[in-house]
Amino acid sequence: MDSGDHVSLDIAKLAESVEGKLKTLLPKRLRELNGKAYTPRVISIGPLHYGKEELIEMEEHKRLYLREFLELSKVRVRDFIAAIAESETRLRSCYAETFDKLSKEEFVEMVLLDCSFLIMFFLKAFPPVIQSRYIDRIFNKPWMLDEISIDLCLLENQLPFFIVEDLFNLSKLQHHCEEYSMIKLTYAFLLAAWQSWVSEEILEKINLLKVEHFVDFLRICQQPAQEMQPKKLATITTPSVAELHRAGIKFKLGSSINPLLIKFDDNKGTLEIPQLKIGEHAEILFRNLQAFEQCNYDANKYVCNYITMLSLLVPDAKDVEILVKEGIIENWLHDNDAVSRLFRNLSKENVINVNNFYFSGVVEDLNKYYSKRVHKWKAALKQKYFRNPWTIISVVAAAVIVILTIIQTVCSIIQVV
Q1: Which Pfam families match (predicted)?
Q2: FRET partner for 165 with CA separation of 20 to 30 A, picked from 26, 243, 336, 345?
Q3: In the predicted structure, residue 181 carries a pLDDT above the cut 70
């Protein structure tokens, strides 16, 4: 190898390291808005929250899962350690911090414990193909199961997906569940944790893409089709749902399972929006997806764009109320103001690129439609006089009386003449 090749190799290695750090650096401005949305409550995965006192209790359970993992896999622990050690530099480069305080031995042990925990957790839960021989404090306590499921989807609580997949393949646990891969197990876990956010179609898409970690998996679940190409956004404002409603626009529940597929039909005056379910953990999901997109410099900001679009459409409780009535928003919070407040808060520090905004076409068409006075007049007439059969009858009766009066007047004039 000549000096030129050596320099080129060093540059490539450095570039990979820098890119990895950029992808996992959580902006301080986002953490300050709601630090709890990024902080694990029960279990730490990876080095960012490793060793925290409030999470130490689960370390013992990780060791129990490691014991079961080794018994099932029939692979020596030294083989797993060797595989992790070989990837140590690559693993460390995936994080913004260097973790110099973690020795090579500590780092490798941490990764082994976390990987074996994730694999066993998935095998036991989705579906239960592995029966534990030990007392399992997690699956005997539903509340703990829910807390762990949330913790595993936090951006600061991730292991690179490749190392989990490598250890799963090395373990040869496919012999216990031949139809399963790490991708399929992850899909089953995320489907159970986030339900409507994860579609059945994702398995076909995910196998063709490189998954960085579980948060990236969730983002890929809603990556929109290329049929709508992002373009420059002329203005960052658009009428709210209530204003659009007063302008005569009808709201239709979209048939797509992808909530990002919002469409506006200018001819019919119909805004089609796929259903969005808002539960108590919605903010955690959106904030971690938002943070990942903003950390990942080369990612298309689909979720960030969606947050902006929703914050424009539902700035007030009355806007949410309209979408709830149409079945577009399924509000598990039972508080319309809480939903509008959620998107207002998410929109703070939500950085988007106006030159590459996914919903720019929808915003542009809505603004054009709303600016035409004829639509507002027609809508006002319809909403004021044709809301129910009685008002329609009254209007028709009044019109008939006016017409008869005119006829009578004309006839009187003719008689006089």
Answers
A1: DUF247
A2: 26
A3: yes
Rounded Cα gap, residues 391 and 395, in angstroms: 6
* Nearest Cα to Cα of residue 216 among 163, 164, 153, 277: 153
pLDDT tens digits along 235-272: 889 999 999 999 999 999 998 888 889 999 999 999 99
CB-CB contact of 238 with 369 (8 Å): no
Looking from the CA of 99 toward its CB, the CA atoms found within 13 Å total: 23
Phi then psi for 138, rounded to 5 degrees?
Answer: -75, -55
DSSP-assigned states of every residue in 255-272: --S-TT--EEETTTTEEE
Round to whole Å and give the CA distance between 414 and 359. Answer: 63
Q: pTM to 2 decimals?
A: 0.83
Triad 149, 153, 159: Cα angle to 5°: 110
- Dig out the tokens for 41 from the structure: 């409550």
Q: In whole angstroms, what is the distance from residue 130 CA to residue 123 CA?
A: 6
Residue 254, beta-bridge partner list = 274
Tell me how crowded residue 334 is: count the other CB atoms within 10 A of its CB: 8
In the three-class reduction of DSSP (H, G, I as helix; E, B as strand; rest coil), residue 276 is classed as strand
Phi, psi (rounded to 5 degrees) for 330: -100, 105
